[in-house]
Design goal:
Layout (H helix, E strand, L loop, with lengths): L1 E4 L10 H6 L2 E4 L2 E4 L3 H9 L3 E3 L1 H21 L2 H7 L11
Antiparallel strand pairs: 1-3, 1-4, 2-3
Length: 93
């Protein structure tokens, strides 16, 4: 697996051809792909930073913890309107 950090810029960021060439998982600003030259080229094309799995997990965990802290501050009625549970961290693939 390859791990990248960056921003999804919208149309053209992940193309149909990209999806046919390799798997892409988006977790906020973290992108996890299959290993291979097509995925590496995709990361370069989109100006993404290549990072280690440990770095990706730490960034993801920090973001989820921040969302969780913000969730805790919401009034119960807003939590019900959103309809989601409190965000929790999970291991990246």
């Amino acid at each position: 697996m390859l791990y990248f950090r960056g921003t999804n810029t919208g149309k053209g960021f992940i193309t149909h051809a990209d999806h046919e060439s390799f798997e892409i998982y988006e977790h906020g600003e973290i992108f996890v792909t299959d290993s291979g030259s097509a995925a590496e080229a995709w990361g370069v094309r989109n100006g993404l930073e290549s990072i280690t799995k440990a770095e990706a997990q730490a960034i993801f965990d920090t973001a989820v913890q921040a969302y969780g802290a913000a969730w805790d501050l919401l009034p119960d009625n807003e939590k019900e309107e959103i309809g989601n549970d409190r965000p929790e961290t999970e291991p990246l693939p």
